[in-house]
Design brief:
The protein is of the alpha+beta class. The protein contains 5 helices and 5 strands; from the N terminus they run E-E-H-E-E-E-H-H-H-H. The protein folds into 2 domains: 75 residues, Beta-grasp domain (Ubiquitin-like (UB roll)); 74 residues, DNA polymerase, domain 1, CATH 1.10.150.120.
């Protein structure tokens, strides 16, 4: 089947088998290897991407389902050679160690901040509860998201003043 999907703001097309999973479309066809595959069962969350504004675990979404949709991957967070505040927060707070879960954590928390710009610690922990990290113990990830929320809020305030 032929599909067209906007990935990180760019219209892409591919011919895929009906059984092709979104994770493998992104990794193998579009060379976006930041989407990690850890389990193929939605248990780990390393493959989380944003599909039409919602976080999904791409290891259980068929590529054909996203035809005509919009996908954002971890590669789409950085803009104009600047890390997204979430990426910077993970860096500053050592919210990653081995890095395997990091793309999924970033995309899950990106979606959280889109709908809850000022999440509580409990809301952050609830949002990432579907993402497994075997290294950090989550405290640094929570701190990274809190820092990003504060930076994004400050950026929004500055943009309002300038407008």
């Amino acid at each position: 089947m032929h599909i067209e999907v906007t990935v990180n703001g760019r219209l892409r097309s591919a011919d895929v088998e009906a059984r092709t999973l979104l994770a493998y479309l992104l990794r193998d066809e579009f060379n976006l290897t930041g989407t990690h595959v850890g389990c193929d069962t939605t248990s780990c969350g390393a493959c989380t991407v944003i599909w039409d504004g919602l976080p999904v675990k791409s290891c259980t979404v068929l590529a054909g389902q996203v035809d005509g949709g919009a996908i954002t991957t971890v590669e789409g967070l950085e803009q104009d050679a600047q890390l997204h505040p979430l990426q910077q927060g993970f860096w500053d707070n050592h919210g990653l160690q081995c890095g395997f879960c990091t793309p999924g954590m970033l995309m899950t928390t990106y979606a959280l901040l889109q709908r809850r710009p000022h999440p509580t610690e409990t809301e952050i922990r609830q949002a990432i509860s579907g993402n497994l990290c075997r290294c950090t113990g989550y405290q640094n990830i929570v701190a990274a998201v809190q820092q990003a929320a504060a930076r994004l809020s400050a950026q929004d305030a500055m943009e309002e003043v300038q407008a």
